[in-house]
Design brief:
This protein is α+β, with helices and mostly antiparallel strands. Helix content is 34%, strand content 26%. The longest helix has 22 residues. It starts with 9 loop residues before the first strand and ends in a 6-residue tail after the last helix.
């Protein structure tokens, strides 16, 4: 699976975003996995400069090879480099974390026919009874994200799915 023609499956784990240090870009550290195997670590100081990749092999030509695979396979998706892919993955991590935080104490829904997201405050963690009552009252006009599979709710929250 490591040929140039195959799209590498790149994931970030152990993502730590340091919001207080972020100025122009995200200040973060993470571990890079390529095709399920640990590749190295990545970091960005958040000052608008380039990111730094530290391959576990200590052979920086491995980073160049990976950049070549990314350029030839991810470009149709608007990703041009490992740096832009890492940025996209960190953005997704931040949005997923925010959505999880919101859904832990609110009902979150999209108004049907739009991309508008609405929140209903609760004084406690939402429960199944809350979902049922809410859907009886608003179910025709809104789509409740709390009851959806997490990745589907994330797409809607980010505005990536078409308005119904």
């Amino acid at each position: 699976m490591n040929t140039k023609n195959n799209k590498p499956a790149i994931t970030l784990k152990s993502i730590k975003v340091h919001h207080g240090l972020s100025q122009e870009t995200h200040a973060y550290t993470a571990t890079i996995y390529v095709d399920g195997k640990r590749f190295g670590t990545v970091e960005n100081a958040g000052h608008g400069g380039c990111y730094k990749v530290h391959p576990d092999s200590r052979n920086y030509s491995d980073v160049s090879k990976l950049e070549g695979r990314i350029a030839s396979t991810y470009f149709p998706e608007g990703v041009e480099s490992l740096e832009s892919l890492c940025c996209k993955l960190v953005n997704t991590h931040n949005v997923r974390k925010e959505l999880r935080r919101l859904m832990g104490r609110k009902l979150v829904a999209r108004k049907n026919g739009t991309s508008e997201i609405y929140e209903w405050n609760l004084k406690r963690k939402p429960m199944q009874n809350d979902f049922s009552k809410w859907e009886e009252r608003f179910g025709d006009d809104y789509t409740l994200l709390n009851t959806m599979p997490p990745e589907e709710a994330l797409e809607i929250f980010r505005g990536e799915s078409a308005a119904v």
